[in-house]
Amino acid sequence: MIMRVFQVVTRPGKEVEFGKFFHETAIPLMKNTDGIVSVLPGAPRPDSPREFCFVMVWKDLEALKVFVGDDYQSPHIDPAEAELVESRSIRHYEFIEA
């Protein structure tokens, strides 16, 4: 299984608008995506008020590629959120079941 950690930093002043997108669009989309085993969304904390993240566990690399394409190493975002996002990052790991 593949663990995908996706992090977003919003533009200053766009936290509420992105938060609405995150909760109403992004989380439901990811929870209903074929090939995802688990989705753990993370919202901002007082010490990081513009940072959001997803930790996703995918069945395998092929399932991830079906969703994002062959360029799975790039942090893709929905066009609806592009103007809200200052930066984004993506990391992949082999998932280890405890």
Mean pLDDT: 94
Overall 3D shape: globular
- Poorly predicted parts: none
Radius of gyration: 13 Å
SS-based class: alpha+beta
- Mind describing the biggest β-sheet? 4 strands, antiparallel
Could you estimate the helical fraction of the residues in percent? 25-40%
Termini distance?
A: 13 Å
> How many DSSP-defined strands?
4
Strand order of the largest sheet: 2-3-1-4
How many H/I helices?
A: 2
Helix and strand sequence:
EHEEHE
* Assembly status: single chain
Strand content: 25-35%
Q: What is shown here, in short?
A:
It comes from Flavimaribacter sediminis. With 98 residues, the protein is of the alpha+beta class.
Topology:
Layout: E1 2-10, H1 15-31, E2 36-42, E3 51-58, H2 61-68, E4 85-94
Antiparallel strand pairs: 1-3, 1-4, 2-3
Describe the structure.
The chain has 98 residues and is α+β, with helices and mostly antiparallel strands. It has a domain at 39-98. The chain has two helices and four strands. A hairpin with an 8-residue loop joins strand 2 and strand 3. The model has no long low-confidence stretch (mean pLDDT 94).
What are the salient characteristics of this protein?
single chain, 98 residues, alpha+beta, 2 helices, 4 strands, Dimeric_a/b-barrel, ABM domain-containing protein
